[in-house]
Design brief:
362 residues; mainly alpha; MetI-like fold; two-stranded antiparallel ribbon; 15 helices; 2 strands; 68% helix; flat
Amino acid sequence: MLKFLVRRLALMLLTALCLTFVVFVLTNLHPNLVKLAKTQASARMSDEQVVNWLQLNGYSDPILVRYGEWLGVVPGWTGTNPETGKPMGRCVNPNAPTAPAPRYCGVVQGDWGTSTVFKQPVSQVVGVRLAATGWLMLWVLIVMIPTSLVIGILAGMREGSRLDRVLSTVSIASTATPEYVSGVVLIVLFGSTVMGFTPLFKHWGLLHEGTLLKGSAASALDGLTFDNFALPVATIALYGIGYIARMTRASMTEVMTAQYIRTARLKGVSFAQVVMRHALRNALIAPFTVIMLQIPWLLNGVVITETLFNYKGFGWALVSAAEGNDIELLLGCSVVAVVIVLLTQLISDIGYVYLNPRIRLS
């Protein structure tokens, strides 16, 4: 196991370097740098002024050198402000330019740069927004995992039954509906004052003001409640429930036809004991891997949902960075996404080894 972990960690590091380099190159293409210069300086800059601004701010160095500076393995660029004559550079504090500056300042040193949109350190912006998204992902997993497992197990226990057909149809419909469709439908049904269930509840006297659920999750940043958090959680969970349920059903169906299940039934073991003691653990091996792989999907899937419900989390920050050409924030978000994907894959592989004795023994 130790050799396996060492190999995987080395492969993860190499993968992270390759992916972050690709993102760094794409975000630092010349058109993006020109747009950044005009955004930070003046929209009416001439081509010559753009070139001078890029040289003054260290964007004219070779791409490998700037990638090394961003990582923190190459000394940061330095220069002199032509207007004030004070030193400037990647590692220089703009609020105290005359103070001693470190030679290296990058991701390795914990310095992710400064966001040009939020005017704050990237690590601070990512930390706050990722924490907000973390609560969303947590409640999605709490809702999605038990629901999908129950649906998949019930459908797979008796393959071909009426219950199996109904649950399979619901799972397929859930998976086939993207978030931007289910989110709008849920808002219309529960968060609209003129359509859906709210007018009916008001007509019956069960609701006097507002809506059943809030169609915006902006207030959830100040405090999570069922009203302001139910719709975004349901929007994301509905899509994942169908996929995990289908995988669980397929695994449960395969296990229920195994020889040891037939032997247990012939020995007189009750159907409930066969399912709970013999079939369930083996049937959960494949869904466990699928569930772990849902975490990176959730991190990417929240982009649509957070934008739709005005929830200012990680996805909202990523959209804002893309719209504002915030290169440093885009790179910070890419680092977080890459690390989360690699860690969940590692945990998935380790968990799969412990759940499957055949792999552990080999």
